[in-house]
Structure formats: structure tokens, C-alpha cells
Amino acid sequence: MVERSEDQVMARFDGEAVVVVGAGRGIGAAVASAFAADGAAVVLVDHRSEVTTRAAELAGGAVAVVGDGSDADVMERAVGSAAGIGRLSTLVYAAAHQRPAPVLSLTPQEWDRAHDVGVKGAWLAAGRFAAAVRRQGGGPASIVMVASVHAYQAYPRHAAYGAAKAALVGLTRSLAAELGPLGIRCNAVAPGFIAVERNRDAWALPEQAARHAARNPLRRLGRPEDVARVVGFLASGDAAHVNGVCLLVDGGELAIRPGGSDQDHDALAEDS
């Protein structure tokens, strides 16, 4: 075996193109950063214009696509951009929409928005990604959906978000079954309470952070990087025979808290 110097060691995703939807902040931004650090050419998609700044900060010629993740044309543009800068290998869908509201006050518009961004957008993105992978001759390739513990546990005022995340887990399994023959694996992660911008009010003060941390077996808040590392594993060759699963990334939150009634248990993925 030929030995390589440190600067010759290939990163895990060298030569690969990765699309991250919902990359403007929080979990999606951490995922994009992790892939770029591991050698991938990353296309960051978000409706926030700040995604262009994030892309400029990343190594490897990252590209920003500003637009709604539930828009078919936006996803066509994102996947096309990725196919032009490397071997299309990974799609991560981290976009979500959540506005806490009692179920009796929830409007049809809010319900539709949660499902358009959280489920329809994921379906559109996966379809366009899979079609592009097929055009390049098939996999190996991977799709990773960012779900939530809300898919498994009900929380008051989160009916639309929770139902959308449960549907996303179901979509993940269906995609795994149908896209597997193309060499495309599809899995999901379900974060617990993650300290992201969206729920800053629930953890910014030391006493609030301590209260949330105390409820977790690991006695700390989850970080976006915790989720990003699991996403990287699922997208890598280390998970080559992992397909159709949803991995909890919650520090054991659901293991010890079968009931959830906290009013301040807010969004676990970023609003879109």
C-alpha cells in the first residue's frame, strides 16, 4: 500500500456534490459546513438571502440557490447546479415550517404551509435528485431527511408540524423502497431539542438552558453539529447497507420522557 502524506489524504466526500435544502441557518447550515469541510462541493438552498453569505464562507466553491424548498423550479435549479460541479451523491432536506398554535386555532393556510415545506418539498427534491442520479448512471447516492422527535411524540400546539414530520418519516421509507434499485439510499434523522436560532428564547438565558439540559440524560442541549455528524454518517460509505431508517438524535430524550406537555418545546428544525 502506498503511503500518503497528510495533505494527500482524501476527505470523505472529495469529488462529490451535495445539495442541502434549508441551509440558511441552524441544522441545515451545520450540515452544509460539515460536508464542505469533508471535501464536498455543496449547493445550499434556502429562501433567506443570507444563504449566499454562508456559501461564500465555505470551502470548495459552494453555491447558493435562494428560493423556497417547496418550489419545483428552485429544486431543478439546485440539483442542476450540483450536477455541474461534481458527482451528485447526496441530498439533505432540512427545510421545515412551524408556527405553534392550538389545534382549534390552526388555520388551513398554516396547516398547508407546514406540509408544503415539510413534506411536499421533500418529495419534490427527492424526485428531482433521483432523476438526476439516474441520468448520471445511478448511485451510490443518498438522501437524508431531517425529521424530528415530533414525528414520534405529540406536543401541544404543534399538530401541523408534528403531522408533517411523521409524514416525512413515512415518505423516507417509501423512497428507500423505490429508489434502492437505483443505488439511492434514503434515511432520516429525528433531532430532539437542538439549540438553534429558531428556539433561542427557550435556551438563551443560563437558567433556561440549564432547565432544558436537566431533562436530557446527557445533561446538555443538543447542538446542530450533533445532527450534522449523524447526517454525514448516513450519507457515507460507512452506512452503505443502511436504508429506510430514522435515527433519533435526541440524547435519550424520548427514552425517558414518554409524555410531552411542555409549552416551550419549540421547533427542532428551522422555519422555512
From TrEMBL:
SUPFAM superfamilies: NAD(P)-binding Rossmann-fold domains. Coiled coil: none annotated. GO terms for molecular function: oxidoreductase activity. Keywords: Oxidoreductase. Pfam families: adh_short_C2. Gene3D superfamilies: NAD(P)-binding Rossmann-like Domain. Belongs to the short-chain dehydrogenases/reductases (SDR) family. This is SDR family oxidoreductase. It comes from Jiangella aurantiaca.
